[in-house]
Write a structure and sequence with these properties.
Blueprint (H helix, E strand, L loop, with lengths): L4 H22 L2 H11 L5 H4 L1 H42 L1 H7 L2 H28 L6 H27 L3 H10 L3 H13 L2 H20 L27 H22 L1 H7 L4 H4 L2 H19 L6 H21 L2 H15 L2 H10 L6 H10 L3 H14 L5 H21 L21
Amino acid sequence: MQQPNSSNRYAIVIIGILFFAFGFVTWLNGTLIPFLKIACELQNDIQAFLVTFAFYMAYFFLAIPSSYVLKKTGFKNGMALGLVVMAAGSLLFIPAAGNRSFALFLTGLFVQGTGLALLQTASNPYISIVGPIESAAKRISIMGICNKIAGMLSPIILGALVLKNIGELNEKLASSTNASDKANLLNEMAAKVITPYLIIATVLLLLALMIYKSSLPEIDAEKEEADTQSTPQKQNVFQFSHLLLGVLCLFLYVGVEVMAGDAIGMYGKELGLPLDRTKYFTSFTLFAMLVGYVIGIFTIPKYASQQKALAVSAIIGMIFSIGIFVSSGYTAITFIALLGLSNALMWPAIFPLAISGLGRFTKTGSALLVMGIAGGALIPLLYATLKDKGISSNHAAFFICTFPSYLYILYYAVIGHKAGKKTVKKNMTSLPELV
């Protein structure tokens, strides 16, 4: 339903604030991984990467249920509910820190992910539908910029608060022979997370109240269900080959995105770089993604279709993966951060390619794609397992998890997105005009 321009602008501002909020929470994981490894006395990086596992697996379990929740609540109330759930997850960090309970930290992260699954399922289609379709890509790019600016800030802020003087603390822990003194040091460190997450929970609850009380226009998305002419012979969503291949593509994309954003600090630590520096590396990756979004705004579709942008991004990702493999030190870290540039345009390219032509199955197809976000849970865990179990070296493990993923994304950009289609409509193969 077309809304007046003033309503559109109001809605875009509100959703932009939401994208900033969940971008801030999402990209805290890169700081939490080394923090929890020390505070909870984890034995290896496999355990540490359960942070991303717990967070992103929530999308796998909650994507489809979220679509049913939204049918009952509507978009506006669904977004408010998602923020409340995220706040509840943040509050779990308080008892988790008090007891230095890794299990409780993981529970809090899973609950946060649950709220984010609901928010993502509501906000992504909302921002596309709330205004004219010909400017949808521009709105999505603006949301992405809000998300990534928050992602740049969050590890800097949390790192400064909870990992301050971490080198000095590690020295004290290493030299401490008294179990009680060591426990006191760890308790003091764990307590540093309480205030930040209490503030985060408060802000999320205030945002939820703001959304609930706002005049945010409700969108009638049920009209999309009426388009059945494009799928007259399809009985279920699993008959769309390009969608199923797209789910795998998005799974791999989110995996390499999390590798570049959340695993970069751990990679630097494996190279012997001090934690006082590696705690900020996630921000470098997010800055590169921000640059990628800006490039996309000015180049797609004026100079390149979304398939071409996806193919070029995959090729660049493969080149950077090779660069990481053959280099070391800060050169390797630079290549990992630059993966953010190659990842930036992948979500807005993969998603529309995968759901094109689904007709009445569009909502279910979208939910399946959101489930693909679980790649952020499994691929970083695979990286940690390969290197910690001695199956491969640190740089080889990173290469194994990234290069084949970009290779498949290239396949999807060139061939996979056309699988099972007799024809490909021009207006479904390029992003809407950015006007």
